[in-house]
Here is the input.
Amino acid sequence: MRTYPIYCLVVFLLFTNIKPVFAQHVHEIDSVMDMSPDHLPTSYTQINYLQFMPLSFKPIDTEMTTTHHYDPLLKTENIYQSLGISGQAHQPIVFDYQKEMGFFYQTLPYPLYFKKQSDLKYYKLQTTYSRVAYTFSFLNSRENEILAEFARYMRGVTVVANIYASQNTGSFQNQGVRKLCGDLLIHYEMPSARYGFRASYIINHFNNRENGGLIDMEDYQLRKRDIGDITNNKVFEVRYPESSNASTNIMMHDFALQNYVNLKSKNDKYFGTITHDFQWTQSTLRYKNDLETDFPHYNSKTTNDSTRIATITNAIQWSNFSPFQAASTTSKFFHVAGGLMHDYADLRYTNTPFTSLYLFARTHIRLFNIMDITAQISYSLISDYANNDIAANAGISWAINREKEHTVGLNANYYRNNPEYIMQYASVNNFRWINLFEKQDIVHFKAFWNYQKYNVSASYYYLNNFVYLSEELHPVQNENSGNLIQVSALIPFQHKNFGAIANLNLQYCTKDVINVPIFAGKLSVFYVIELLKKRLKIQVGTDLMYNTTYYADAYLPVLRKFYYQTSQPIGNFIFMDANVTMSIDRINFFARIGNILPPLMKYRNFTTPDYPVNAYLLSLGITWRFFD
Here is the structure.
């Protein structure tokens, strides 16, 4: 694993011509400011691979406010329960449900780290943009993270490459993470704009040591207070110690190729775009444990389970807009697209193939320059597993002031689908079942108000036949319907050099099968000191996270799943970090100490039962942007 940072540095140096950067003086600008004549404008957008729409670009974020949020779990907008250190399993504390077309063996509990095609960035730039970042953490555990980003445009070709590697030793027995994530995207369009293609590749590689959590949470809390030792967590017993060699190894490859032809007459009259999408993925999931484990209702045995899933997807569609067309600023337009998708999946450990055929369509209509109507639907015509599945959503929004991004609106989503495959059929060493569940029916209504970076929303979920993993570690379908209500607000505030960002969420569910806290929130507060005619900026701040007490889902490493439990309440603890950031032109330095309150709050520093969040982790980091 020590070679991962070296690989990252080599790739970064190969892609980037560093010498001209030092020869050219470029002024830093905040992403909320107008573009300076001395700045080479660089903007980006997320691109949805299959369900593409016209692209809306935004400037890259050059603010120093979030520099110390080097890990996605630290960001103010992300409120997750985790296993105590970065890189391991996590799931949202604020309930959310989404489902895409295609076969799903299992939704892996790494949403903030595992990249998908829809997570890739596409840049609009003049020549080259790149960024490199490195973070070193120590005290309770040692962690190294390195990130390299690169984007270049030359003669009609856009190339984007990213690589991210991390190693975390953890502070408890048999706790650690090694991960490598990388992606490469190439886009080309002919000068005549009649043909273009986009090719992309993603690799996600995780190797996590799994200790199964503490054997006794209360013992951890009491012994901590008695011995007064905040650094030696190795003394506490875990379910799977070093001798178990318990680990999860995941390797995922994802390749996509998109070819599109813009249909034009000789006088350049446009008749739409034909797009063909091809995607190949291969996932290898392995869990190993050399010790016999004690699972309720199951025979205990050592485990070395390996699962490989390969999928091939082909889709063809027609649209009256091109995949890389910029979003329109006109007062009215009508965008529509639709097509047919064939999905093939092969579950290697059972030699079971699955074939599905989907119809899909979507539209975006703008009326009177103030009203936007969107809709999307997919339906499985033929499927070995997901026959007659439906996913549909619709939305309407009113632009109060489009230039200031001031809008209000309503969204509605409906899903009728089978649960993920592993909840229906499992055949691993310690778990075997065949369940003939009915389809889930999930409805989501959302009302929202957006003003620039402010967002307030109210949501209602209707959950019928919802499938979950029970305390007995067996999938169960709740035959009665349930209701979940959410109110959320993301509120940034800034006055002169003082600023704050609050992420506040209220939730209530009428069914116990989904446990959520009544309140969950994050708050980031900072103050900026400007020196040397504002060329040197120093920011001091703190991040806080809090949720009310509830029965948070526990985690089962052998199945890589969180499960419902009612024996260990979690919450009523304030997670507090302190940070200092220094910015000079395009270079940001930061120091951060995480989770500094456990001794004052009786060591209740858990977001997931049996997994304490690492305390007193000191992190030092640097991030450096280059424009050429």
Notes: The two ends are 32 Å apart (CA to CA). The chain has a mean pLDDT of 88. The CA atoms of residues 467 and 477 lie 4 Å apart. Helices lie at 3-15, 19-23, 217-227, 421-424.
